[in-house]
Design goal:
By secondary structure, this protein is of the alpha/beta class. It has three domains: 125 residues, Response regulator (Rossmann fold), CATH 3.40.50.2300; 143 residues, no CATH class; 164 residues, no CATH class. Helices cover 66% and strands 7% of the residues. The strands form two sheets. The chain has a five-stranded mixed beta sheet with strand order 3-2-1-4-5. Strands 6-7 form a two-stranded antiparallel ribbon. The longest helix has 40 residues. The protein is globular and about 75 Å long. This is PTS fructose transporter subunit IIBC. Its main location: membrane.
Length: 461
């Protein structure tokens, strides 16, 4: 029996999404065709298509008035129409899809320009699962707020460190944008999208509300992470256990789930979780702000080595998330150590391909040219092609260089107000505290990495 798959999604995700799905499935049944339809509605994705479903399908019908990602249907013939067309004339759409597939036609899906590193990054992202996947979803949505807020605050300081205190000035407006708006949103956005990753749309409202409460009671990014996971799993649990008659199902995503999950998360944050987490955050912030000497260097060594250990993997992201979250508490030194240490692996390897060409294959020497750009852009994954070819020599080399970079960044008491941007943010005044020592730490880490490669890696025959 022939098989096709489909997706339906309308802007509100309440009625037409399910009407279109039902219409397509009934039409397929009448035509003697097996059809599975995934719905992307207000309660999230239901009847989700698996890789096996898509592999077995001859064609695809997308009936949507909302954005639907098509990358997973690469190589298939896709009929892409408005959701109303699937309700009005489903048999014609199914027939059109099968005719296209029988002719051997496929739909061209633009994936943009990806080089080897970007493909590796995308592959790693797709392999994330469980709590790590949910946390990274929240962090990735938070980063634009941190970047915009950090840069706005830095620009405010261009007029003087206390210029923002004078109302009505441009410095005050920039501080309001950065600290008052962007930084105030970063924890709620992170919490909201952690919950969204777990429970889909029903998790977003309780997650963001929990994040705002975490901010207001001083529980910081740690409270936001807890609120996000709490909101996601509570919303998912409620979604699974509450069953309503079909005519009342529209009330579930817009009334029942947001109300019950938001109240539960909010009350738990206020009466149970908030105070202990607040105490932890205050202690952590005071400890980091007072840190100096050996302790600071040791923290830099640990963060630096973590950044290079798996080059964008879970350990790297743990160090990055820790440092990014501390920006909300005005602790900027760990962020400086982490970004500098994340740049040196590809930069050091790029330098090694120039100085010690006899240690690399011709393809690796060519890859070194791209590594310059990737390292300068704070894309640590630029070291992966080298590490994949010779992990026992490359990983110790880049970890040594990154650990020294992190240690020097902390020793020099440098700071960084934005969580990304590589060398390009160095051009913006007041973003980096201790600009010259910071650049020096990156240069020394790059040189150490290259020299370690020279020592550990034998000449290629």
């Amino acid at each position: 029996m022939k098989k096709i798959v489909g997706i339906t999604s309308c802007p509100t995700g309440i009625a037409h999404t399910y009407m279109a799905a039902e219409s397509l499935e009934e039409a397929a049944k009448k035509m003697g065709i097996t059809m599975k339809v995934e719905t992307q509605g207000s309660v999230g994705v239901e009847n989700q298509l698996t890789e096996q479903d898509i592999k077995e399908a001859e064609a695809v019908v997308i009936a949507a008035d909302a954005n639907v990602k098509l990358e997973r249907f690469k190589g298939k013939y896709i009929v892409n129409v408005a959701v109303g067309d699937a309700i009005d004339n489903p048999e014609a759409l199914i027939k059109q899809a099968l005719e296209g597939a029988e002719k051997g036609e496929t739909t061209n899906i633009s994936e943009g320009t990806y080089d080897q590193v970007m493909n590796l990054k995308a592959e790693r992202k797709s392999q994330r699962s469980g709590a790590y996947k949910h946390l990274m979803t929240g962090v990735s949505h938070m980063i634009p707020f941190v970047v915009a807020g950090g840069l706005a605050i830095a620009l405010s300081f261009v007029f003087g460190y206390k210029a923002f205190e004078q109302e009505g000035t441009l410095a005050a407006a920039l501080m309001q944008i950065g600290s008052g708006a962007a930084f105030a949103l970063m924890v709620p956005v992170m919490a909201g999208y952690i919950a969204y990753s777990i429970a889909d749309r029903p998790g977003l409202a309780p997650g963001m509300i929990g994040g705002i409460i975490a901010n207001s009671i001083g529980a910081g990014f740690l409270g936001g992470i807890i609120a996000g996971f709490l909101a996601g799993y509570i919303a998912q649990w409620l979604k699974n256990i509450i069953k309503l008659p079909r005519n009342f199902q529209g009330l579930l995503p817009i009334l029942i789930l947001p109300l019950l999950s938001s109240l539960t998360v909010g009350l738990l944050m206020i009466y149970v979780i908030g105070k202990p987490v607040q105490s932890i955050m205050v202690g952590l912030t005071n400890w980091l702000q007072a840190m100096s000497g050996t302790n600071a260097v040791l923290l830099g060594v640990i963060l630096g080595a973590m950044m290079a250990f798996d080059m964008g993997g879970p350990v790297n992201k743990a160090a990055y998330t820790f440092s990014t979250g501390l920006l909300a508490s005005n602790v900027y030194a760990p962020m400086a150590a982490v970004m500098a240490a994340g740049m040196t692996p590809p930069l050091g390897l790029a330098l090694a391909t120039v100085l010690f060409k006899d240690r690399f294959s011709r393809a690796e020497v060519e890859a070194g040219k791209a590594a310059w750009v990737l390292g300068a852009s704070f894309i640590t994954e630029g070291a992966i092609p080298f590490a994949a070819a010779d992990p026992l020599r490359i990983i110790p080399s880049i970890m040594t260089g990154s650990a020294i970079t992190g240690a020097l960044a902390m020793l020099f008491n440098t700071s960084l107000k934005v969580p990304h941007g590589g060398i390009f943010v160095l051009l913006i005044p007041k973003v980096v505290g201790g600009l010259v020592p910071y650049i020096l730490a990156i240069i020394i880490g790059t040189l150490v990495t290259a020299l370690m490669v020279r020592v550990l890696k034998p000449v290629v025959q």
